[in-house]
Every structure is written in structure tokens, then in C-alpha cells.
Amino acid sequence: MSITNFRLTTDEYDANFADIHPPFENLAAALVEANRCLFCYDAPCIKSCPTSIDVPKFIKQITTENIKGSAHTIFSSNIMGGGCSRVCPVEKLCEGACVYNLLEEKPIEIARLQRYSTDIAISHKWPLFKRKPSTGKRVAIVGAGPAGLSCAHVLSREGVDVTVYEKESKGGGLMTYGIAAYKVTPAFCEEEVDYILSIGGIEIKYNQTLGENISLAELQSNYDAVYLGIGVGLARQLNIPGEELEGVVDAISFIYDIRSKGFNQVKVGDRVAVIGMGMTAIDAATQAKRLGAKEVTMVYRRTEAEMPCTTVELDLAKLDGCKIIWLAAPKEITGENDHVSQLHCSTMVLGEPDASGRRSPIDAGETIVLNVDMVIKAAGQMPFEALVTSNNIDHQYGKMWVDANSGTSIPGVFAGGDCVNGGKEVVDAVQAGKDGAKGILNYLNVNQPVITNQY
């Protein structure tokens, strides 16, 4: 057993990481699906979308072949509607709320229809929004992820000049660096960021890290307001013996390498164990398999009923050949010559519910041993607590406290996204950016946005 790269041919990599949700090939195909929509009054799909996209409206616009109007409707609520159409867990959001589910019929393919309109708009670089004249107000945003970019776009539409400070060399945040490559390609992420910036009034300064290249005090003195969209990103440790062995990696770093390097550059083992059952764990497991791992086993300390990922994601892992071991918790990693060779897990039973409402796993006293040469830790992510604390921002275990206007405990400093909620979906971060922009506009006494559909 060994960890190595260049396991597959270029054609095999391309096939394994091809778009998992192909778009509609043409207008005719989109029209067939769009015309299934019942255009519900008080539509549940709108209520289930964190950004409140008017789903019946944009689908109706597709049926009338008003693609520009459809894209405008989507982007008015969610400027990252193109990316969200690829990565949103729609089965528990808009499509999960579709009334067709009650009729035991297939729900409307809302995500594919959303992708159809937004892809055309982005590829044609349609200027769907016009920026108001500059107000002279300047806002700094830390983080060019979904929350930061969403906030920046709303502010820029209202004539506020925005400078975004991003620690990476590309924008997009989680979309660019933290999601499986077969869901959203790096090329699309770059196109989406460019489209958002095309409104003007937004400058991104890359390779700028808060606490290293820039300070919060500096931003406060140079700008009228500051928005923090720094996300989360510290991998939660297992705190078990052997965690330091070669071949033990965290899922965040593993996926980051896949996103930032060529597929053939990323090393993977023959037998891989993935610890966790969230969306990140699924992405790590499926991509390990697609990189050429012979065997991938996912280990989770609870049952399928308590898993944080969706059934759709779990089925994806199963279809890729990943094995699942339920009710097992890692207790030790052993190795040979400083390299991992075995993962020892305790079998578990479920006891009383914990603080989150899920039943707590309890050690059943037996041990399972897996022969592996790579262990990927996907036990969750933690906020940047030290960074938040050092800037004297009120928080709870690193998650920043904000009021109803997205304001932190420091006047003029706002925050949103994963750094506040601890880690939710991309679409939640987009809405947090909109909320932050609204709070900043109030703070700066700038007129609130009034969006009219001119299409």
C-alpha cells in the first residue's frame, strides 16, 4: 500500500471529474421542464430558499423565452445563483419543497433551470445591473467568498466603493477551494467572480490576510465601514494517538489541493479511511475514489438517521464504491515507519440526545481495525477564534456575535456567513452578505436598494 499521484490517465481524470449535473443542452429541453411548473401562489420553493429567489417568476420567464429577465430575477436575489445552482443541496431546499413531492411526482428541476439562465447570462456577460453614481463612501470587506462578494455587489449597486481583501490568490472562497471539482469547476468559479466584479466599483486585493498583511484597526481608520466574511477553515482535530503520522490529512487541505493543483498532482492512498459524514466528508471520499484509490471507507459514529449530509450525497458516495461503517468512532491510528497502517475504531451505541438534539454515541466496548495507508479527517471545521479574540470582537467559541443589522460588538464593523453561523450552505452565506450590505447602508445613511425588473 502506498500514497502516490499520477494514478490515472488524463482521460480517466477528465471522465472522473466531469460535470456531475449536466445542464440542459438547449432551450427546447429547458422549456419542457419549465412548462411542468405549476407557478404556485405563495410558492413553498421561494420560502425554502435562503435568498428568497422568486422561482415561479424566473421559470415563467424561461417559458416565454425571456432568458435575460429570468437571469435578472435570479441574480436580484442571489448574485451567485449560477454557483448555487451547482452546489446547493436542493433536495432539502427548493426542490425538496416543490408541491410535486406531495403528488408523488418528480419535483421541478429548479437548479438545472436556474443554471440554464445564469450560465447564458454569465457566458454572454450581460450587464443586468447598473451601478448608481458613487456616494463617496468606502467599505472594506475581508474575504472574497460568497458572503463577501454578495455584500460587495449590493453595496456597489448603491454607489458605495468597495475594496475586498482576500487571503488566497483567487476569489470565490469555498466555491473555488472547498467543494468537489465535479460539482463546480475552477474555470466557472473564475467566470462567476469576474461577472460579479463587472458591475464596477469593486476592487479585490489578493494575498492579503487579516492579522498578517492587514489589521482591523487599519481598515477601520481607512474606510467608513468594514464587513468580515472570513468564513471558517480550521480543521477539527480528532485528539487521538497517531494523528501525527504521515498519511493522516484533513479534508479541507485535501480538497484544497484538488482544487488548486492538477488532478494528477494530488496524492491518494490505495486504502483510504474518511472520518465523518458531512458534505465535506462526502466530497473527500468521492474524490479520493475518483483520484484512483482502490478502496475508500467512511467511518461515522452515529447512524444514517443522524448523518449531517443528505441522502443524495450519501448515494453519490455509494455509487462511487465507497464503503460505509456506521456506529464507529476512531480511537487510535497506528503505523509502521512513521506512516499510517491501521485505523482502530470503537463500536458505538446511541444513548440520550446531546445538546444538538441528536442521540449521543456511547462506546460499546468492541474494536474494529481497518488496514489503511491514508486517513482523511472530516470531523468538522472551527472558526478562527484566536483571530476574533485578538480583535476584541464578542463571540461564542469563535463564532462572531452580530445584531439584527449584522453589526458586531464594534461599531462600524459588520460580519456574516460561516464566521457567524459556524458553517452552513453557500446560499446562506450569500444571504448573509445581503443582510450585511443592508446593515452597512443603514449605518452609512445610503438609500436602500430598490430592484426593478427592466426585462
How would you summarize the topology of this molecule?
Elements: H1 10-16, H2 27-34, H3 44-47, H4 55-63, H5 67-77, H6 81-87, H7 94-97, H8 110-123, E1 138-142, H9 146-157, E2 161-165, H10 174-177, H11 186-197, E3 202-205, H12 216-222, E4 225-228, E5 234-235, E6 248-250, H13 251-260, E7 271-275, H14 279-290, E8 295-299, H15 311-319, E9 323-325, E10 328-336, E11 339-353, E12 359-371, E13 374-377, E14 381-382, H16 385-390, E15 395-396, E16 399-400, E17 413-415, H17 418-421, H18 426-443
Parallel strand pairs: 1-2, 1-4, 2-3, 4-17, 6-13, 7-8, 7-13, 8-9
Antiparallel strand pairs: 5-14, 10-11, 11-12, 15-16
Helix pairs in contact: 2-8, 4-5, 4-8, 5-8, 6-8, 9-18, 13-14, 14-15
Question: How is this structure best summarized?
Answer:
The chain is an alpha/beta fold and 455 residues long. Helix content is 35%, strand content 19%.
**What CATH architecture of the largest domain do you see?**
3-Layer(bba) Sandwich
How would you sum up the global shape?
globular
Using only C-alpha atoms, the radius of gyration works out to 23 Å
For the biggest sheet, the summary is: 5 strands, parallel
- Total beta-strand segments: 17
Mean pLDDT, rounded to whole units? 95
InterPro entries: 4Fe4S_Fe-S-bd, DPD_II, FAD/NAD-bd_sf, FAD/NAD-binding_dom, Helical_ferredxn
Protein name: NAD(P)-dependent oxidoreductase
Domain 4Fe-4S ferredoxin-type: 28-61
